[in-house]
Queue: 2 jobs
Job 1
Amino acid sequence: MNEDLEKIKKQALADFAEYLSPMKTRTMKSAGLDIIEDKREGASVWDITGKKYIDCQTGSGIMNVGRHNKEIADALKKALDTYDIGVFLLCSKQKADLAKKLEEITPGDLKCTIFGTGGGEANDAAIKIARGYTMKKEIIYTEKAYHGHTGFALSAIGRDAYKEPFEPLMPGFKMVPFGDADAIRKTITKDTAAVILEPIQGEGGINIPPDSYLPEVRKICTENDVLLILDEIQTGFARTGKMFASEHWGVVPDIMTVAKSLGGGIYPISATIFKEEIMDFFIPHPFIHLSTFGGSDLGCIVGLATIEYIQKHNLADHAAKMGERFRKGFDRLVKDFPDLLLEVRQKGLMMGLQYTNQSIGPRLTKKLAERGVIAVYTGNDPSICRFMPPLVITPEEVDFVLNALEDSMKAISKESGIGKND
Ligand SMILES: Cc1ncc(COP(=O)(O)O)c(C=O)c1O
């Protein structure tokens, strides 16, 4: 044990508690995750004291290209020799290059982009565009949905606890169950502007809808002149084994939002991508939606480098392969520990394990941390442990995580015999 590093860590945790969040510090400590991130590489992160972890949390999917990806970091370093963030008022080649690339990789006829810095901002823009373009007011969203904590996005979160202290929120938002296309059909009125959905709910508990759901929702939206907004902020950029999750069902939204992994884990950037006809709304007022830092030149350079990395290394295929490897291990665990695990939810490397009992969550997170794996339950469903490792994870690292899981399950079983009847 290096006492100097232990001292630095203790001080950083104390300062974090004092100046940022005492509750977060306490919660992380009790979960065994009072880590001070230091070195980061591939699927791993090291605590400042030197302990190594496989990161299966990755900020809920920011690190698709791996922790501190050297190629992306080098692209940023090179850019810094010449550029700064740029001035939002002026046109820029960096913005144009990334927007053109997004048109190329997004499905169907999605074409135009508005940049932002984060996911909530991208969803705010999507909802604003939907209202502005359709001149209608209502937005339909789903139970357990997570779209960010900014103004319009917060109104579309499907969990009251995040919203109640800030009410009244935006009017005109209506919630329906996720996975139920008929509920959307029944909720649409003449004043419905858009339906906003995650193709697979992330914070909601890795909820994968029935195969008929998205195509049916697409049909309902088209028939009723309602825009479909797909939030691919967690599911995008090869996470599920395709560049975008909506491709699994062949569905093209009218507006798609992306963020998180677009920044390569290096520089924040988000985008709201929409069909060309929607640009009509901006013709009379091109400056109606602005973001000083959104789509900064540095962010765009990083975004482009990130997409090129994903394509060059075929991370979608790799995610599908590593997902299969995880699946075999997860299935075995569900069979071997029926008192602890109920089911596996998975598309590529977007994965969740459902516990039989919510109290298992914090205990499993702690056991996994002791064994060098970071994995935490989802924000809107604490009965699901989420696994979203970097897509560059190797077969050996997958096996390491599975072994740590098996070991943790054994330890929990032995300790208390916790199970379905608790
Ligand atoms: C699906 C989804 N949408 C939106 C957001 C909000 O993104 P941000 O935290 O960058 O505002 C998140 C964040 O976890 C998300 O998972």
Job 2
Amino acid sequence: MAVDTKARIEQFKFMAEANPKDELAFFSLGRAYLEGGDAANAIPALQKVIELNPKMSKAYQILASAQTAAAKQLEAIETLKAGVKVAHERGDMMPRNDMLKTLKEHGVLMPEYEAAMKPAEPVGEGEVHCKRCGLVKPKMARQPFSHATGKVIQDNVCADCWREWIAMGTKVINELRLPLNDPQAQKVFDQHMMEFLNLK
Ligand SMILES: [Zn+2]
């Protein structure tokens, strides 16, 4: 495992132990374990996220990846099914569609949700096919940042989802106590942002 992955795991473990109700700390911990190839430890951390916040659709998606990596296919399928329902109810279209796709690869169909998968509509002037909500909606009037990521966000995320991220971003900074003048913290923050906006 890479040294910086190990360091991040230690950091998130410390945060999760200090704030046992902090879903973001457990989410970051689970994801770091998975990135480090440690699916066995990723699973309980991600299960804890869902216990703390059953509406976090992204947690189901990552938990299912960990369960698949740990050769727990049947559990992964159950996680994905639950995740599709949660994502559908919340209007998180992209995670929902990604999870439906993964289920299909496992040979499992959920026709009642698949019917709602609409083909992309044509995008007009001043509109964007939003990667987060999956809808064609008004574009942001200007880039949220001047650098390249700002352009990617303006071209791929609707104004409404961006406003939702502003609120969530504040929560991330407060809960993870990120000092944003620290480049490492800035990286963690950006990762949360790209994940929330469903941009890779
Ligand atoms: Zn949107």
